[in-house]
Write a structure and sequence with these properties.
With 322 residues, the chain is of the alpha/beta class. It contains nine helices and 15 strands.
Length: 322
């Protein structure tokens, strides 16, 4: 009942109207009854339906006044951002993402698992932005178009698997496909977050050329290079140092970010990756302009239906017991 309001609450001032009419209008003069002493005394008793009819009439009037007051049910407040940013997540899904060199809580996990954890939290914090997801390997694939539904984006991220679209790395195609989704966008800001652990060795579009096209459409690209780099690998009787990020093309990723007004970041472990996305979150703050509205539903039909029902009942009673 807390969510129900009466728009025209002044209508309740009409409640005593029937009583006022009853008191102010002069009553009809009663004709003198003829007294017949031989008739049964109970013949002059009042109808057993008199009290019930009066109660029903009161209920009908009360429901009519309630319907006139226009009861409205208001739902919980809904907040809508008046302006949104379009943000595309472009994720490398090449087979090298299975490399378990991302240190997390003292243990090493594969790169894809680290990306899933960090991206899911990043998406959760982007309320008000339209998010999309592009995956690339041998070619680029639009996994999720731009949407305000963050839950769907998180589910798609958690369902990412390797070798879904090949083993290679088509960075240029990933940028190109993400840029294509911005063409019909009317968002004042267009941002792309590109994550890769390798170099462009597949696809038909060069990464720099793709970045130039993205720049023409006013897109800012933040690039993230993933890979631990030097890592100690245990052998039978010793350990040796290996470079797990030898395929990472940092120069190209940095150039892509610079020419589009973004930044390049390097993630060597899961904590660094999380900090990078926190930094991007701060560099692209959420738009605070909001509008709040409450869904509403008219309820005048309910008391009106009750009044109609009891009016019919009252009519039937009076017809059968005149």
């Amino acid at each position: 009942m807390e969510n129900i309001e009466f728009v025209w609450w002044g209508a309740f001032l009409l409640l005593p109207l029937p009583l006022l009419v009853y008191k102010l209008i002069p009553s009809v003069k009663q004709r003198h009854a003829i007294y017949l002493p031989n008739l049964p005394t109970q013949s002059g008793s009042k109808s057993p339906f008199g009290h019930t009819s009066r109660v029903l009439a009161i209920v009908v009037w009360l429901m009519l006044v309630t319907a006139t007051a226009r009861p409205v049910w208001y739902g919980e407040p809904v907040t809508v951002h008046t302006e949104h940013r379009d943000l595309m997540l472009v994720v490398d899904l090449s087979y090298s993402m299975n490399q378990a060199d991302m240190k997390h809580n003292g243990d090493y996990i594969d790169r894809l698992s680290a990306v899933k954890q960090v991206l899911s939290q990043f998406v959760e914090n982007r309320e008000g932005d339209r998010l999309g997801l592009v995956l690339f390997a041998d070619h680029a694939y639009l996994q999720t178009p731009l949407t305000l539904d963050r839950r769907t984006i998180s589910e798609q991220i958690n369902q990412m698997v390797l070798r879904l679209i090949g083993d290679q790395t088509a960075i240029g195609d990933g940028i190109g496909l993400a840029t294509k989704t911005f063409i019909d966008s009317d968002a004042p800001q267009r941002v792309m977050v590109l994550l890769s652990d390798g170099s462009n060795n597949s696809g038909v579009l060069d990464p720099i050329e793709a970045a130039e096209i993205a720049q023409q459409y006013g897109t800012t690209i933040y690039t993230v290079g993933v890979g631990a780099g030097e890592m100690e690998v245990r052998q039978f009787f010793s350990t040796r140092t290996v470079n797990t990020a030898h395929d990472l093309d940092e120069k190209t990723l940095e150039e892509i970010a610079t020419m589009t007004g973004g930044q390049y970041f390097r993630a060597r472990n899961a904590d660094e990756l999380a900090n990078i996305y926190d930094t991007i979150d701060a560099l692209e703050p959420i738009n605070e302009a909001k509008q709040t509205w409450r869904p509403q539903q008219e309820w005048f039909g309910l008391p009106l239906t009750i009044a109609l029902f009891f009016s019919i009942v009252l009519l039937v009673m009076r017809r059968n017991h005149v």
